[in-house]
Design brief:
The complex is a heterodimer of chains A (332) and B (315). Chain A is mostly helical. In chain A, 76% of the residues lie in helices and 2% in strands. In chain A, the strands form 2 sheets. In chain A, strands 1-2 form a two-stranded antiparallel sheet. In chain A, helix 1 runs antiparallel to helix 12, helix 5 packs across helix 8 and helix 10 runs antiparallel to helix 12. The longest helix of chain A is centred in the C-terminal third of the chain and has 37 residues. In chain B, strands 1-2 form a two-stranded antiparallel ribbon. Chain B has a two-stranded antiparallel ribbon with strand order 3-4. Classes of the chains: A mainly alpha (332), B mainly alpha (315).
């Protein structure tokens, strides 16, 4: 298993480099191709109301007057070893990993992100737990009662779930279910877990609806395949209780579910950002949106880069957890 | 002794694949419903000016007399009346039916454009990756993994922030639509590439490909004449199911503030505008919401039916 984990870790590192390259390309190279001048870029770093000499200073300081490759090297270096900040920034050094420094908010982007991260992660984790458990459970029920009433009900629910966008169902649920969940706010999980769950329940439901449908389908088809397998017939013939036979069939579907889940992490984070926006929660999404409106480029870039790296790490964690759980991966 | 010729009516005729698929699809009531709905929606979008003209409404005229800024449109259900069948919007009193019709053009344009882009890219790279294998395969698939690592919604938001108001010779709503199509299309290709690659991996070992190669066929011939016909089914199904996903995604982008400037509106933009007034005027949210719901449902029903019809093992 150690070899497996090391190989996975190397892949993750390569992916992180890739994420850094793509982010750099999108924020520095693509706009330049689109006709943006370095003055405009410097203005985005400075925030609103910066004078021309300030812009020149920023341009020089950030190396915007240098070649693209030098800029890219500086940008990578900041990530790995940190960077020194120009005088008058409010801080002298941006510690590694440096995702940038907001001259508007006078804070390092990483601090800003870590401040908001618990909100986004709370929305994402709650929704993921909800859709994984409910999706797999109802998919299993549908497969076992194939063609029956429960199967039809689950399939209709899954189809409807995938057709209701968060933007539609979120505000509607908030308005119509206000009597049931009067308050949708973020409170720390550590201080009061029950309040945390109660106040985030609506966002969880909203976000998990669409994914619930996908995972139900996935589990249902996987289990129908598994239930017709030889080992299930053997298990029946040996006289294993029905519950244990079903569990054996369900276990076979887990690799597929885990693979799809690892691929969906990016969508999950994006979905969480959208959901928190709809419910007015102040997470990563609100940070990014404020930064876009305030033309605070370091924050916009930092959030994008951070979320990309975050997903690579999360993906690695899913893989590693799965390697621990699945004996087949552990052996090979 | 000669056998009597079999009468024409009793002869077993072979059916082409297309005919079999068509027959199966026609027998699937849900798919037929989905198909008709899609055709109707596309016609409504194309002829939006004509249809709204028939109802005597237009998307830009303001009717401030019909609405109250605080309490919403006069009358029930968002001010629905004979003159304005789906009501008027909260603040300016613009006709909702006309906005919905014109909005469908934007929503469908973005969804179709992004689908064409990502399916084209994904299928191309998937074939390349699967057929050539080796290093090309590794590189393409790893790049795909990088693209999958980006949360698209955040990325689109960032790109809007990074670009100035004018870029690539586009500005305003044209630029916004281009960004939406680019982000949704350009970052979704790894999914279809994986599917196509897996298909190609199994197809390229088959006898008919060997036969073609033995007869001296080049790569181009094998890809276009031997592989492509067999890849059309999964690509078509995936595209049909990607369009509704993109419609929903467009709504998400609008909610995050990448929407269009008024008076132009997409369905996502209409829903986003309605969020602020959902307590006083829920109809303005429900109308575009139901439009999205019906459209997405239709594409999903049709796509599911198409998949079943194209699957030779399904009954």
């Amino acid at each position: 298993m150690t070899t497996f984990l090391i190989r996975r870790a190397v892949t993750a590192l390569v992916l992180m480099l890739g994420v850094a390259v793509v982010t750099f390309a999108v924020f520095y190279v693509v706009p330049a191709l689109g006709g943006r001048t370095t003055d405009q870029l410097a203005a985005q770093f400075a925030g609103r109301g910066a004078g021309p000499d300030q812009l020149t200073a920023i341009k020089h300081r950030l190396g915007l007057d240098q070649s693209v490759f030098v800029q890219f090297w500086d940008y990578l270096k900041a990530l790995v070893v940190g960077a020194d900040l120009p005088p008058g920034s409010g801080a002298s050094h941006c510690a590694a990993p440096c995702f940038g420094y907001s001259w508007r908010l006078h804070d390092s982007v990483l601090t800003l992100i870590l401040d908001r991260l618990p909100v986004t992660v709370s929305v994402a984790v709650g929704a993921a737990v909800l859709w994984l458990t409910l999706g797999v459970a109802s998919g299993a029920v549908a497969a076992v009662t194939r063609g029956g009433l429960a199967d039809r009900a689950v399939r209709v629910a899954a189809l409807l779930g995938v057709c209701l966008p968060v933007v539609f169902i979120g505000p509607l649920a908030r308005a119509k279910l206000a009597w049931l969940f009067p308050s949708v706010t973020y409170s720390s999980f550590l201080s009061n877990p029950l309040m945390w769950a109660d106040h985030l329940f609506l966002p969880w439901i909203t976000l998990s609806l669409g994914y619930f449908a996908l995972y139900t389908r996935l589990t249902r088809s996987g289990m129908i395949d598994a239930l017709s397998g030889q080992f299930i017939r053997t298990a029946h013939a040996k006289g294993l209780p029905r519950r244990r036979v079903i569990w054996q069939a369900l276990r076979v579907t887990f690799p597929a579910v885990a693979t799809v889940f690892a691929m969906d992490l990016g969508l999950l984070l994006g979905g969480a950002v959208l959901t928190e926006k709809i419910y007015g929660l102040h997470g990563i999404g609100a940070l990014a949106q404020d930064a876009v409106e305030g033309q605070d480029l370091p924050v916009v870039l930092g959030v994008t880069l951070f979320s990309g790296l975050f997903i690579v790490v999360a993906n690695f964690a899913v893989d590693a957890a799965y390697a621990v759980l699945d004996p087949r991966i552990r052996v090979s | 002794m000669r056998r009597a010729p079999v009468p024409a009516s009793k002869r077993i005729r072979s059916r082409s694949t297309a005919a079999t698929v068509w027959r199966k699809l026609k027998a699937d009531r849900a798919a037929v419903f989905g198909g008709y709905t899609i055709v109707l929606l596309i016609l409504l979008a194309v002829f939006a000016p004509v249809v709204s003209g028939l109802f005597g409404v237009d998307p830009t005229t303001l009717h401030p007399a019909l609405t109250d800024v605080t309490f919403g449109p006069h009358g029930s259900f968002g001010g629905m009346s004979w003159a304005h069948p789906l009501g008027v919007d909260q603040r300016l009193g613009r006709d909702v039916l006309a906005r919905l019709l014109y909005g469908s053009r934007v929503s469908l344009l973005i969804a179709f454009g992004a689908t064409v882009l990502s399916v084209g890219l994904g299928a191309g790279l998937g074939v390349l990756s699967g057929y050539l294998g080796g290093r090309v395969d590794t590189v393409v698939m790893r790049i795909g993994d990088v693209f999958l690592a980006f949360p698209l919604l955040l990325f689109a938001l960032g790109l809007t922030g990074a670009l100035s108001d004018e870029a690539f010779g586009l500005s305003g709503n044209g630029l916004r639509i281009a960004i939406m199509i680019f982000v949704m299309g350009f970052f979704n290709w790894p999914y279809i590439a994986r599917i196509v690659r897996a298909e190609v991996l199994s197809l390229r070992e088959r006898e008919f490909v060997d036969a073609a190669r033995a007869l001296g066929a080049g790569t181009r011939w094998v890809v276009w004449r031997e592989l492509m016909p067999n890849l059309m089914a999964p690509i078509l199904v995936y595209a049909t199911l990607l369009i509704p996903a993109n419609i929903i995604f467009e709504a998400g982008l609008s909610a995050l503030g990448i929407g269009l400037d008024p008076p132009a509106a997409s369905w996502g933009q209409m829903m986003t505008d309605a969020i602020a007034t959902v307590y006083t005027d829920p109809a303005y949210l429900i109308v575009p919401g139901m439009a999205v719901f019906i459209t997405v449902l239709a594409f999903n029903l049709f796509g599911d039916g198409l998949r079943d019809a194209l699957d030779p093992t399904a009954q």
